[in-house]
Write a structure and sequence with these properties.
This protein folds into two domains: 186 residues, D-Maltodextrin-Binding Protein, domain 2; 144 residues, Bacterial extracellular solute-binding protein, family 7 (D-Maltodextrin-Binding Protein, domain 2), CATH 3.40.190.170. Helix content is 51%, strand content 17%. It is globular.
Length: 335
């Protein structure tokens, strides 16, 4: 029995050694997402599928929970060749393809099907924007509709003037949004938010409900406004120079599985964000209903003002009109 087990262990060791030695390409991937989240689960499934389909020749080495820094740090390391790939939100996307930040502007989208329609309509155009910035899009991974969380109740835009609002440092979309709202936010790195909530340097933040739980921000707030501020884009990208160096068969495996698992992630994130609102309610976060009359009147105007502020800074007027006209066309046929 002992000899049989020893033989089995040796055989397993040889097999694992062969698998390890057969891996020719390792994609060093970094994300802010903590372990156990839908983002990380999807990446693990993506990695497993790529390894299996490539016969172990290709796989990811995943750095989670912001251990490689925030998104700008990660992209800088990719430029230096220290990393190859990243899971990023709007801020990171803006560093690569500033025009795509139009998708994160306030009060642009009302429903998920509108987001899907715009992505489908501009699919090739958006992919080209990533390539122009030196990256290849492996898949969109939407973060979800963003809500405002605070320690004082907020039911209308004017209430924001009474809070110490956080802004992701260096984010032009957030800057334009709060300028249109008449708010002076406090810019901080995303990795400093929880500590700043604890010390009361800030008392209001914006994030999707699922992220509020994953990042533990919910533990330091009392209220959530039920009216979404914007939809937060997300994507998994890889350095174009690294991608171009891969054999064609591995490129196909990477792209095909990326689209598959990131689409699944987006669908799961939407479900999880919906469930997270009820979870937050059960944990003591008060859900504040927006003033309907104010929302209907003010928010479309605020969104339009913010988008106009970004013309010539992130995107041109032509792209803005294309996206807005596409939404008008969709809404007119899907009332």
């Amino acid at each position: 029995m002992f000899l049989k087990r020893l033989t089995t262990l040796i055989a397993c060791g040889i097999f694992l050694g062969n698998v390890a030695s057969s891996q020719q390409y390792t994609i060093k991937f970094a994300t802010l997402a903590p372990p156990g989240t839908a983002w990380m689960n999807a990446m693990k499934e993506y990695d497993a599928a790529v390894r299996k389909e490539s016969g172990g020749r290709l796989g990811f080495k995943i750095y989670a929970n912001g251990v490689q820094g925030d998104e700008k740090d990660v992209l800088r390391k990719i430029q230096l060749g220290q990393l190859h790939s990243a899971g990023i939100t709007g801020v990171g996307i803006g560093e690569i393809a500033p025009r795509l930040r139009i998708l994160d502007t306030p009060f642009l989208f009302r429903k998920y099907d509108e987001i899907d329609y715009v992505h489908k309509t501009f699919e090739q155009q958006f992919a080209k924007m990533f390539e122009d910035g030196g990256f290849v899009l492996l898949g969109w991974a939407e973060v979800g509709f963003v809500h405002i969380f605070s320690n004082v109740p907020i039911s209308k835009s004017s209430d924001l003037k009474n809070v110490k609002m956080w802004m992701w440092e260096g984010d032009p979309v957030a800057e334009a949004t709060f300028k249109a709202l008449g708010v002076s936010p406090i810019p901080l790195s995303i990795t400093d938010v929880l500590t700043s909530l604890q010390t009361r340097l800030i008392d209001a933040v914006y994030t999707p409900p699922l992220a509020a739980i994953a990042l533990q921000w919910w533990t330091r707030v009392k209220y959530m406004l039920d009216y979404p501020l914007a939809d937060a884009s997300g994507a998994v990208v890889v350095s174009k120079s690294y991608f171009d160096a891969l054999p064609n068969d591995l490129k196909g495996i990477l792209l095909r599985n990326g689209k598959k698992y990131m689409t699944q992630l987006t669908e799961q994130s939407r479900k999880d964000n919906s469930k997270s609102i009820e979870t937050l309610r059960q944990r003591g976060v008060n859900i504040v209903h927006a003033d309907a009359d104010v929302a209907a009147k003010d928010y479309p105007e605020i969104g339009n003002s913010a988008r106009q502020l970004l013309v010539g800074k992130l995107y041109n007027k032509e792209l803005l009109e294309e996206v807005e006209n596409a939404l008008k066309t969709y809404r007119s046929s899907h009332k």
